[in-house]
User: Which sequence fits this backbone?
């Protein structure tokens, strides 16, 4: 079982579909986005296309919050993605109002985002707080500070940007407890989930992307039970976990490259695993293996070969967010999770293909 997870992890950090996820999901579903002219679709193999950007939500190890900076943990398969509108009144009204899609997570489970597709400016919000700057979610793009990542340059995002080359891991927590980034920076927990918004370049600024491949029709499975009551406490948000080595790269094209009128957005709800079962009738993914078990088997961690790449400085607001372990300690006197250090070894170096450094000649 562990070996199967590890095979998936090596593929996932390179962006290939996980072997565990090839069979269950073979569907495409268009998510209405009336406020944005571009398309949002659920693709086969549990991927989400927002405009021209493809995003997958990767299950992973929750790294210990022990003061150390860890290398990149593996991917352990993709979270399933389902459209909110497909389940009628089984979905809580607050989620139906926002539309979009939903994924299941266990409390204190970690996640990272994998990006693919042509260069696009992509905003990432956690509870409508920018994951790069810590500022409230606003329309458009901000350049000072840069409040977005650029796909094609940024291959993945594992957490909130807290310093130069440092993030704190995305960790799911229920709303209403004050643990989430949203709760700590806004004083309330109204939104939860993730927010994604992709901006296309202005005409002539960048080469056009290739046309997308044709997709199969959506297959929802059994009949929907619209009269079933929506579960309580379904929505979750993202809190801060342990520290990880990861750069957020500056926009090499400049903010003026992107067209504010050509964009697509999607609200990604995070549903508690128990509520997922009630809403969809599907079993949520099992909790992943622990970092301690992973390390005991000597399986690899990952590091991107990006020493020559500049990085954004990170956000002072996000750096001030207390982690899950710190909130536990303040409330209960000690962390409730397993925060024992692990030996993050061996580390596999991943080359950044396509980037060429000039020298003296």
Assistant:
């Amino acid at each position: 079982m562990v070996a199967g997870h590890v095979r998936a992890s090596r593929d996932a950090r390179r962006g290939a579909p996980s072997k565990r996820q090839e069979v269950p999901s073979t569907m495409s579903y268009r998510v209405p986005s009336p406020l944005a002219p571009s398309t949002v679709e659920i693709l086969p193999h549990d991927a989400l296309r927002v405009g021209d950007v493809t995003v997958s939500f990767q299950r992973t190890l929750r790294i210990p919050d022990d003061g150390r900076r860890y290398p990149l943990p593996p991917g352990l398969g993709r979270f399933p993605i389902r459209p909110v509108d497909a389940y009628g009144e089984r979905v809580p009204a607050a989620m139906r109002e926002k539309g979009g899609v939903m994924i299941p997570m266990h409390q204190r489970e970690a996640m990272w985002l994998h990006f693919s597709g042509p260069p696009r400016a992509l905003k990432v919000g956690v509870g409508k707080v920018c994951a790069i700057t810590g500022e409230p979610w606003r329309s458009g793009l901000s350049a000072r500070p840069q409040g977005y990542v650029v796909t094609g340059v940024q291959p993945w995002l594992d957490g909130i940007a807290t310093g130069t080359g440092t993030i704190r891991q995305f960790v799911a927590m229920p709303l209403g407890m004050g643990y989430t980034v949203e709760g700590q920076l806004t004083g309330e927990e109204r939104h939860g989930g993730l927010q994604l918004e992709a901006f296309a370049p202005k005409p002539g600024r960048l080469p056009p992307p290739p046309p997308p491949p044709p997709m199969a029709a959506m297959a929802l499975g059994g009949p929907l039970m619209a009269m079933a009551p929506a579960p309580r406490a379904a929505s979750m948000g993202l809190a801060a976990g342990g520290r990880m080595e990861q750069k957020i790269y500056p926009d090499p094209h400049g903010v003026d490259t992107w067209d504010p009128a050509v964009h697509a957005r999607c609200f990604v709800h995070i549903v508690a695993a128990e509520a997922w079962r009630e809403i969809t009738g599907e079993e949520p993914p099992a909790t992943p293996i622990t970092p301690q078990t992973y390390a005991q088997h000597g399986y690899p961690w990952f590091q991107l070969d990006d020493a020559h790449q500049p990085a954004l400085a990170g956000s002072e607001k996000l750096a001030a967010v207390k982690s899950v372990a710190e909130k536990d300690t303040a409330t209960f006197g000690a962390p409730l999770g397993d925060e024992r250090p692990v030996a993050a070894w061996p580390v596999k170096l991943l080359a950044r293909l396509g980037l060429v450094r000039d020298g003296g000649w």
In short: Residues 2-208+228-350 form one domain.
